[in-house]
Specification:
By secondary structure, the chain is α/β, with parallel strands linked by helices. The radius of gyration is 34 Å and the shape is elongated. It starts with 8 loop residues before the first helix and ends with a helix. The structure holds phosphoenolpyruvate and magnesium ion.
Length: about 850
């Protein structure tokens, strides 16, 4: 317990070795987080044992061989007190050398303490010190003590003998000598290579300092109720209020946590005896101290305590380790209890970690049988039986059996299989490849680029790098959050979208200053977008609507039509289907903006790739197979992503855009009849030249005029350009005057800026990131330098020509917190991302607004 005494002047004048008092010069960045926390507890007048803090500087000098002013340190403690030394790094998560307890035990103290606390307890204290000194200070192997089975005084005697045999020296008896040796060994351990690498992996800078705290021991063994334990007020997995921890009579340090059944519960518990029953007063006291710590330190803390003959001593408070969902609940409860303001609660939750709440996860404590790690392209985890084709996935879903679709890569033909599967695994691809984009859109766990596995999809065999072979029907788990492919079925943690989540999101929205929309292609996506309170649809990729079996054949017929009028006739049949698609989206979004992108992919994606598919098509179209083959061949391109797609189709095969524009406008009038008025947004993809916009715009304007005239009703619409080629960014000044908005498609823009295929980059991306060529996968985190500069140029030039132009990003980066920061800095009006990333984006945007208000 802290006793005010006058003898500490020498120490107090030296900030590098200072007694922790309420006003001692102790700071986390000079003495470490533990020292600072102890000072806070001392200020709260908690029963903290007397403690001296050594600064980073002092510890560094000790490591270099300097001997600290021992007299000044020891003067702070009773001459009979045992001491312990514990690490105090700046951020407690960076760790540090293990604590050494019971410094000061020697033969004489052993005799004294045997009289006061009993021989067995005294021997236990001495034994613990001898063994930890031997291992941590004298650097003996722990197995030196392996053969010692006796405990009590005999175990002690044998341990001392083993120490002497190994070191050829008697066990040191002088407390000062013991202390210096412990300090030096801990100081040097911090400088060791493995300790350095370990903490750097946790984000510590190379020159991170170590402080040490020397604390008077409250032994935890002796007469009356003595022992040690830890207590916290929340469950670390859920964050719900729940007193958790353990207590072990006649123990020290964290013994209670390793003690299994012999440890006591804290609160009354049907599973066994509790501290509440054994020492009710100490328990009540402890609970009150923990609540005070929570309130004053504004954090959920784990309390490390010792009970000495019924009295509680607080040795330390450590921030409670927590899962992502616990972190959110803890932050919200602290704000609801008015301990922190709501803005601070918003700042405390890591937006990336929200993914853990929005999706099922592998339970943090489950055993993981990891087969390989690919790119975690869509978060969440699912278990299922593997299937190798979309058709098998659909059959499996029809049987009510969860399945994982395993493909080398996916194509639009697999979308229905993806809908039927609970997860997707591909060999190829990166963050913006087909499987990744669709997976995120569906909220489906997805791993792409698992190139260390062997995918023999024709033979229906999947082989792991360790040689294990999986066939159709075998069970795998896909953890799309970590990118791990797991064998079998580990325990799962369900998604939670509870009131706590809604509360936090409400606080976030009140702060946010950039809008968040969702990319949604189907009514189901749109409903998810609404549920996550997206402020509209920023990108509806209309091509996905054509893969429905009933439409695919009509689509193929259209592609095979020889003349413009032939094409228009077939498109007439698609028109009502598209109109209903759009009307549904408008109805679900209830007057919020819906941005529909005109047809984008190369047409050959809709043609069958297999011989049997081509035969079926020939039959359906009543054409010779050779004709079909010839047409399919003729349409193939060397580089389809840079070929006949996007606006290039709009210019050369304009009937498709005409049909889509008509469907959009007719749906607009229909949906506006009974619901909120709809102002559709029509977006032209892959633009690189002003003339493309002029040509498409004039046709769309005339379709709008025709629909208005036919239905005798005017309506508004906004026409915009998708900026996804570098040239469109550079020429934004001449494009902007023709458009209401510019929406940056950063997937294609990244692909074209780097000359890096979005579908193939997965093969070398991890090597590139590992070797520091790219700091991050640029398809995941927007490249601030190259692609970011194009965004900046595009925005500036677009605005220069048309100050009111709406600016946005609708590539996958729209859901990535770091990328949202770039968009916000550039003054964009909104970002649009997969529906399941909307909450992540809402929170990240709120944090950016709060920190910029605070000048951060
Ligand atoms: C883009 O290129 O950024 C985009 C949103 O379009 P898509 O992913 O459909 O090519
Ligand atoms: Mg694109």
């Amino acid at each position: 317990m802290l006793r005010r005494n006058q003898k500490g002047a020498a120490v107090q004048n030296n900030p590098h070795t200072t007694l922790i008092t309420p006003d001692a010069p102790v700071a986390a960045n000079t003495h470490g987080g533990r020292a600072k926390c102890l000072q806070r507890l001392v200020r709260l007048e908690m029963p903290v044992p007397r403690t001296v803090a050594l600064s980073f500087d002092a510890v560094h000098r000790i490591a270099e061989g300097e001997i600290p002013d021992l007299t000044a340190i020891l003067e702070q403690f009773d001459s009979a007190a045992l001491l312990c030394v514990r690490p105090s790094s700046e951020d407690p998560d960076w760790g540090g050398p293990g604590a050494v307890l019971n410094i000061g035990m020697n033969d004489a103290r052993y005799v004294d303490l045997s009289d006061t606390m009993g021989a067995e307890a005294a021997a236990a204290l001495y034994l613990r010190f001898v063994q930890s000194y031997a291992v941590h200070v004298a650097r003996l192997d722990a197995d030196v003590f392996d053969d010692i089975e006796a405990d009590g005084s005999e175990g002690l005697r044998q341990s001392l003998r083993a120490y002497e045999d190994e070191t050829d020296e008697a066990f040191p008896q002088d407390r000062g000598e013991q202390l210096i040796a412990v300090l030096r060994s801990m100081a040097r351990a911090w400088d060791g290579t493995s300790a350095r690498l370990l903490r750097q992996a946790k984000g510590a800078p190379a020159d991170a300092g170590l402080g040490l705290v020397i604390q008077e021991m409250i032994p935890g063994v002796g007469q009356g109720e003595c022992g040690s334990g830890v207590l916290q007020l929340v469950d670390i997995t859920t964050g719900m209020p729940q007193i958790t921890g353990r207590y072990l009579s006649q123990s020290q340090g964290r013994d209670a946590l390793g003690a299994g059944v012999s440890a006591l519960f804290l609160e009354k518990d049907p599973r066994g005896l509790s501290l509440e029953e054994v020492a009710p007063k100490a328990f009540a006291d402890l609970k009150a101290q923990a609540a005070l710590m929570r309130e004053k330190l504004r954090e959920e803390m784990q309390v490390e305590f010792v009970i000495e003959n019924g009295h509680v001593h607080i040795l330390d408070g450590v921030r409670v380790q927590r899962s992502a969902r616990a972190a959110m609940r803890i932050a919200v409860r602290l704000a609801e209890d008015e301990i922190i303001p709501p803005q601070e609660a918003v700042m405390r939750v890591d937006p990336h970690a929200l993914n853990e709440l929005l999706h099922r996860q592998v339970h943090p404590e489950a055993r993981r049988d990891v087969l390989t790690t690919g790119i975690g392209a869509s978060p969440g985890a699912s278990t299922g039986r593997i299937v190798f084709t979309a058709a098998e996935a659909q059959a499996s879903a029809a049987r009510g059996e969860a399945c994982i679709l395993v493909r080398r890569e996916t194509s639009p033909e697999d979308v229905r299989g993806m809908h039927a599967a609970v997860a997707v695994l591909t060999e190829k691809g990166g963050m913006t490849s087909h499987a990744a984009v669709i997976g995120r859109g569906l909220g489906l766990p997805c791993i792409v680029g698992a190139s260390e596995m062997r995918f023999q999809t024709k033979k229906k065999i999947l082989s792991a790098p360790d040689g294990r072979v999986f066939k159709t029907g075998d069970i795998l788990t896909i953890d799309g959050s970590s990118g791990q492919v797991l064998a079998g079925q580990p325990a799962m943690l369900e998604a939670t979208l509870d009131d706590c989540f809604q509360t936090l999101m409400g606080w976030a929205d009140a702060e946010r200053d950039i809008e968040i929309r969702a990319n949604a292609d189907t009514p189901a996506d749109a409903q998810t977008a609404r549920n996550f309170q997206a402020q509209g649809i920023g990108l509806c990729r209309t091509e996905h609507m054509f893969f429905d079996p009933g439409r695919l054949i009509v689509m193929r017929e259209m592609i095979f039509a020889q003349t413009s009028s032939g094409r228009a006739a077939v498109l007439e049949r698609l028109l009502p289907m598209q109109r209903e698609d759009f009307a549904q989206l408008f109805r679900i979004m209830e007057g919020q903006p819906v941005c529909i992108r005109l047809f984008d992919p190369p047409l050959h994606e809709f043609l069958p790739t297999t011989r049997s598919g081509q035969r079926e098509l020939a039959e359906a179209l009543d054409l010779p197979v050779s004709d079909v083959e010839r047409r399919v061949d003729a349409m193939s391109e060397y580089n389809p992503m840079l070929g006949m797609r996007g606006v290039r189709l709009g210019v050369t095969v304009p009937e498709i855009y005409d049909m889509q524009a008509r469907a959009i406008f007719e749906a607009t009038l229909e949906a506006s009849k009974n619901g909120a008025p709809v102002v559709p947004e029509v977006m032209i993809p892959l633009v690189s030249a002003k003339r493309e916009v002029e040509l498409v715009k004039s046709r769309i304007d005339s379709v709008a005029a025709a629909v208005a005239a036919e239905q005798g009703q005017e309506f508004e619409y906004r026409l915009g350009v998708m900026v996804e080629t570098p040239r469109a960014c550079l020429r934004a000044e001449e494009i902007a005057p023709h458009t209401a908005f510019l929406s940056f498609g950063t997937n294609d823009l990244t692909q074209m800026t780097y000359g890096l295929s979005r579908d193939d980059a997965g093969r070398f991306m991890s090597a590139y990131v590992r070797q520091g060529v790219f700091t991050e996968d640029p398809f995941h985190v927007l490249d601030p330098d190259g692609v970011g500069e194009l965004l900046k140029l595009g925005a500036e030039r677009g605005r220069a020509a048309q100050p009111d132009v709406t600016l946005s990003v609708c590539g996958e980066h729209g859901g990535n917190p770091e990328s949202i920061a770039i968009c916000r800095d550039l003054g964009f009006d909104y970002v649009s991302c997969s529906p399941f990333r909307v909450p992540v984006a809402r929170l990240a945007a709120a944090q950016l607004a709060i920190s910029s208000r605070l000048g951060g």
